[in-house]
Amino acid sequence: MSTDVTAxxxxxxxxxxxxxxxRAAFGVALGMALPQLCAAxxxxxxxxxLCGACxxxxxxxxxxxxxxxxxxxxxxxxxGTLSMEAIADPPPYGRARAAVxxxxxxxxxxxxFKYGDRLDLAPVMxxxxxxxxxxxxxxxxxxxxxxxxxxxQWSRRFNQSALLADVIAKASGLPVSHRALKRRKATAxxxxxxxxxxxxxxxxxxxxxxxxxxxxxxxxxxxxxxxLTSGATTExxxxxxxxxxxxxxxxxxxxxxxxxxxxxx
Length: 265
Ligand SMILES: [Zn+2]
What we know:
Elements: H1 3-17, H2 20-30, E1 36-37, E2 44-45, H3 52-57, H4 84-88, E3 96-101, H5 104-115, H6 122-132, H7 134-137, E4 142-145, H8 150-156, H9 160-172, E5 181-183, H10 195-202, E6 206-208, H11 213-216, E7 220-228, H12 232-243, E8 248-256
Parallel strand pairs: 3-8, 4-7, 7-8
Antiparallel strand pairs: 1-2, 5-6
């Protein structure tokens, strides 16, 4: 390796350790665009968000899957088949779809987006969601993102679900309502809570603003969130929207926890 190449590699390494904001400021100061870094492995990438290796590690969800929950089947049991999970414990929402499985790579990507100053990931993540949810948006009137409590939104400066909802709205041609749902309670973080604790944590946490009732009543909605784990948050939002008279609520998330769906015998 020549000295020039070694120096360049060392400088790329230093570059990689700078945060997104610092890199942007540094780039502006030098009057040049710095190479984008992969959101998962922090290697420089051409183009958007993720390098090829990390992209190929993401586990995109595709049919065959449960018509209701969108969780993949190990084989194709035929169109419209519901999983045992959907039959035994049907959710309040109609259908759920997710772009990818929530695994290590997806978690890294979501964390970079939410907490790591990587808002540049919204367009690519939102487009994957728009593809995964085409069936839902094709039969909907309005997109509604899961809201943050105002205090959390104030400290984070943005609502990740709202950014994704904007991209999906643009891709699908649907309007989006950022004001319909309101988070009344500043709930504790769901991370580390058991399923029943998660449900209690979000009980009564969401409501439809009285001014937005007309927007919601009789409409077919697509509720947008970044991750679906226990489903407690999406279920609480769905119930609030249905109470306000929504005709139907489907759920579209970037990543979801997936255990293999069981096909009814
Ligand atoms: Zn990578």
